[in-house]
Amino acid sequence: MLLFSTVLSINQSLTKDKFIELAIEWNQGSPHENNVIPGIEWHGERNIRYGNERLWMEIQEYRNQNIIAVRYEKIEEDGAIWDTDYVMNFTAMKMSIRLDRSFLEEALAVDPNFSTPHFITLLIEKGYLQDDYDLAVLRRPLIIDDSNIELLAGVVNGTIRYHLPIVYISKTYDNTDPVDVRFLASKLKGVAHVLVQKSNWLSSQCRRLCDDKNEYGGAIGIYYPNPAVEHKKFLFHYYTGSEKVLFDKVIRTVIQYANAQNVDSLYTWQGVSNALLTDRLVAQRAERLEAENAKKQTKDEADQLLETFDDDFNKLQKQVEDLTRANEALRQENEGLHAKLNATDVVPILFLGDEDEFYQGEIKDIILSVLSDAMPTLLPQSRRLNVVQDIVGSNDYQHLSENKAEEIKRLLKGYTGMPGRLRQALMEFGFVITDEGKHYKLTYYGDGRYQTIFAKTPSDARAGKNNASTIVKNML
Question: Which of 114, 112, 137, 127 is closest to 7 using CA atoms?
């Protein structure tokens, strides 16, 4: 599963040797000791591998296209496989950075924590990143005040150019930031610019220059370089936990857009590996042809050589087939994301509002569930019933909320406490569980509007059933 992808413009100061040295520095300087590959000594090699089967880094050069690719792979104890790829095209001076996660059969659970690669921080600190037109690529927010307010106006009015999305954060009505802007900028380094309104006293000037189209009152806007993608606006609401909900919403939206962008195959590890193997196959075929021509003169020697070629050829052919399948899987995943974000030829019946989707397909499923439940109340052969039946039948209603409700009821049947297995299952359902003395407080996806209380040692035998009923009615 592709977790993170970005392509950055690099200035000429980054040479091939510096690029490889930076990748090694990124690994050797990791604060997490179990991520560091021991014994790396680089002496200028362009094709080399370090580490072991569960923790390794490989460098390969594709001279035909002036490309160097680096892959770092780590296999966790639970079976999760983390791949981090850095692919640098020294002709175009562009670098692709991708983070992918897959699983072995013994994988158990998914770690929900994610952070963009520290490698981008190194690129910023060492001055290797090229400006995005008039915007520097930073890991901190750019403060909008009266000296650069024209920049904001250009973004909102669509009169300036940029490659990376722009996140604009307005001040709340009490002149505070709706989210931690420095942490947000750090999380979005290399995939978006973060612009922050300095103070509320700028509001009237902003609205005048932007023709009242800019965000205000704590709202956050995401502006895309692709005019086919309409800008997103997220409102700020005052409730417990609202900052985290809004923060996660912005992060998820920007990362999804970045991951949905089409990337040339030669900006991926699989693509470079495939190209190298294809070139080797071409060379093998040429050598085989020469051997066949020489066979007439030295039959025995040629037969031996052909056997060697056959073995090598079959191995290379299998590698190409494996890489091709991997590329196809990634291509289909990318096209799926791209279609969701950029399908301008489809006009939806309804447009989403400001509510965030807690899991993939949640809002659609809730709407279809409500419509499905309403059908028995509609008059037979009525226009309303026909329209509702058509919508439910045409939208692949998967009964997600109903299935979740049944599973919640099963988990809480006979509830007598919170053992580790139940806690883990509820957390996988999206609940944040906190200790409140004699009770546990469960907050659905961290949103303070959806909370319930569980007794640690319930005296009522129906406690589990009542808890399940509250969750099903209020949260699913």
Answer: 137
Question: Which of 14-28, 199-213, 300-314 shows the lowest per-residue confidence on average (mean pLDDT)?
Answer: 300-314
Strand ranges inside 90-231, DSSP E = 94-103, 142-144, 166-169, 193-197, 220-223
CB neighbourhood size of 254 (10 A): 23
Residues 374 and 406 in one domain: no
Does the residue 354 lie in any domain?
no
Put simply, whether the predicted model's pTM sits higher than 0.70 gets the answer no
Give the Cα separation of 26 and 75 in Å (integer). 18
- Contact in structure between 152 and 206 (CB atoms under 8 Å): yes
Q: Which helix (H) or strand (E) holds 404?
A: helix 400-412
Res 103: pLDDT: 63
pLDDT in tens, 66-121: 999 999 999 988 788 899 999 999 999 999 999 988 765 544 444 445 567 899 99
One domain, residues 248 and 317: no
Distances (CA, A) of 18 to 13, 26, 45, 55, 88: 9, 12, 12, 23, 11
**By the 8 A CB rule, do 330 and 268 touch?**
yes
Residue 462: domain span: 400-475
Do 334 and 271 touch, CB atoms closer than 8 A?
no
Same-domain pairing of 372 and 311: no
| Contacts with 63 (C-beta within 8 Å, 6 or more apart), sequence order | none
Q: Is residue 386 part of a domain?
A: yes
State pLDDT tens for residues 218-274. 999 999 998 888 899 988 887 667 788 889 889 988 988 898 888 888 999 989 988
DSSP string across 7-71:
EEEB-TT--HHHHHHHHHHHHHT-S-GGGPPTT---SS-SSEEEE-SSEEEEEEEEGGGTEEEEE
List pLDDT tens digits, range 181-218.
999 999 999 999 999 999 989 988 999 999 999 999 99
Mean pLDDT over each residue of the chain, to the nearest integer: 85
Q: Count of domains in the chain?
A: 5
**135 part of a folded domain:** no
Whole-number CA gyration radius for the chain: 27
Write phi, then psi, for 16 (nearest 5 degrees): -60, -45
271-276 long-range CB contacts below 8 Å, 24 or more apart? 271/327, 272/60, 272/62, 272/67, 272/69, 272/87, 273/60, 273/69, 273/319, 273/323, 274/320, 274/323, 274/324, 274/327, 275/62, 275/64, 275/65, 276/60, 276/62
Residue with the two structure tokens 């895309």: 224
Specify the residue for token string 């417990």: 240
